Amino acid sequence: MRRWNGWGDDKVDFHLSGSAQGMLEELIGSGTPREDVDLAGMLAKIPASRLPDHPLVDREPLTRLRHAVGQSFPDWVQIRYGDLRRFPDGVAFPNDDREVGVLLRYAAETEARVIPYGGGTSVVGHLTTPKGDQPVLMIATTRLNQLQKLDRRNYLATFGAGVNGPDLEAALRAEGFTLGHYPQSFEYSTLGGWVAARSSGQQSLGYGRIEDMFAGGRMYTPTGIFDMNTLPASAAGPDLRHMVLGSEGRMGVISEATVRIRRLPEAERFHAVFFPDWTLAEQAVREVSQAGVPLSMMRLSNAMETQTNLALAGKERLINGLKQYLELRRVNVADQGCMLIIGFTGARAIVKAGRRKALELCRRYRGVHMYRMLGEAWRKNRFRTPYARNELWRLGYGVDTLETCVHWDVVGEAMAGIEAALRNALNVENEAVHVFTHLSHFYSSGCSIYTTYLFRLPANGEAAMARWRRLKEAASEQIVKYRGTISHQHGVGEDHQPYLVHEKTPLGIDLIKQNCAFFDPKGMMNPGKLV
Q1: Residue 285 and residue 412: Cα distance in Å, rounded?
Q2: What SS3 state is found at 64?
Q3: What are the GO BP annotations of this UniProt entry (predicted)?
Q4: Which of 182, 220, 365, 450 is catalytic?
Q5: Is 325 designated active site?
Q6: Is residue 138 within 8 Å of residue 67, measured between CB atoms?
Q7: What is the Cα–Cα distance from 165 to 167, expressed in whole angstroms?
Q8: What is the pLDDT of residue 465?
Q9: Each residue of 285-323: b (16+ CB within 10 Å) or e?
Q10: Which residue(s) pair with 206 in the sheet?
């Protein structure tokens, strides 16, 4: 069963190796193991529902609790420290499009606010129940999860918006196709959520982002049903799909989506390359990106992330052998060495040609090719990493991530600025912060910077939130300084909202508000998010 107060399946655990725990204790100190509020304690906090009875709405406390928060750090603090004060009044599970319309009318009649709920994986506060006297209805798209149409001739597939990543891929692979969208939340996040949050998968270099895949669909709004036709391309005015992409539930409930699919690749390989230092590694991935080498993904870890990942891997004898070999090749991963995971996907001939060219460019910058063992290990475990949050919290450590996208000319400076801001943000409390970063989602003009930071949890939720706010604000100010996007793939929600104006400008914010008001004139849809 899925955890009610953490990440993922409660039968799956991520155990930190002794070396990883030792590394954390050395860098930021020993954590104090926490005892969370139990399920009975949280259920006791839930007030009576303010919604009238409806056959599609579940008002039971446990259902409301399970849909009350996402996976952001503030969400975790509220539910684990027992500080959660606001809950949805009911959760609806429509079985088809028609029932989505029925539920929006019910919400209008009862003056309820509506929050669309996909997989519950938001890490930026998309699911927070708003304050106020109005009841709140979650519309969960869980049952809108079927493959409705497969167009083999035009390579299009239409799904209910609530289909999760594994089920979507299973349905397509049974017919010889794939979508190729693999965010880290792949196991639980949904197609509708990917569209609403403008998601990017780990292999976007080859498959594209969700805006490249989303061909059209349907959104139920308080104003009416918004159907988006699918076309290969169009110059007939603005592309209306882009009002839905990244709309974060502010305009309506996405009920179905048609996506552009591909034939299953003949071959897929993941390799590892190590570089002596960051400067050489960054130059290498930029040249590979700008050369247009046919790849599906790259992930370049800086020195600290490389060391952290190797410590997390356990298998100390194997890792020590790797380190010794790399030292002979003049790469010291205990010091400045950086690891690149690089993926090749497609026809065998393309995979072979792409591998040859990419590795040739890496060698120019003293890259040492370590073949497939580490690359395949990354592929195998790439959706298990979020489970580490559960174990770290148990040991007394908080962890969060943030990401941006900047131009190549400031990548190194921006990464250093973000890391320094995080590392120093808790100096006032004499608390250390462990920070590490990787580059991903590469473009000819720049790339995404994805940073993880760990810190010790204090005794109470208020103090934990104060620490997180200092960290988040310090890093976000650096992102703005280096003209980066406040979100490359996580969306805006509540957490990034104060910084959106720097990217969109005041006039742009007004335009977004006008779009929301057109579809939702009474402001009932996911209020307080995005803008």
Answers
A1: 13
A2: helix
A3: lipid biosynthetic process
A4: 450
A5: no
A6: yes
A7: 6
A8: 98
A9: bbebbeeebbbbbbbbbbbbbbbbbbbbbeeeeebeebb
A10: none
Helices 303-312 and 316-328 sit at what angle, rounded to 10 degrees? Answer: 150
What's the angle, vertex CA 233, arms to CA 248 and CA 228, rounded to 5? 40
Q: Are 391 and 399 in contact (CB under 8 A)?
A: no
Hey, what domains does the chain have and what are their CATH numbers? 267-382 (3.30.70.3450)
Cα-Cα end-to-end distance for the chain:
35
* pLDDT tens per residue, range 351-405: 999 999 999 999 999 999 999 999 999 999 999 999 999 999 999 999 999 999 9
Secondary structure element (H or E) that encloses residue 322, with its range: helix 316-328
Q: Which residues pair with 178 in a beta bridge?
A: 262
H runs (alpha helix) in 124-255: 165-173, 191-197, 204-207, 210-213, 241-244
* CA–CA distance, 95 with 235 (Å, rounded to integer): 36
pLDDT at position 35 is 87
d(CA 418, CA 412): 10
Cα–chain center distance at 151: 29
CA distances from 34 to 385, 432, 507 (A): 21, 19, 46
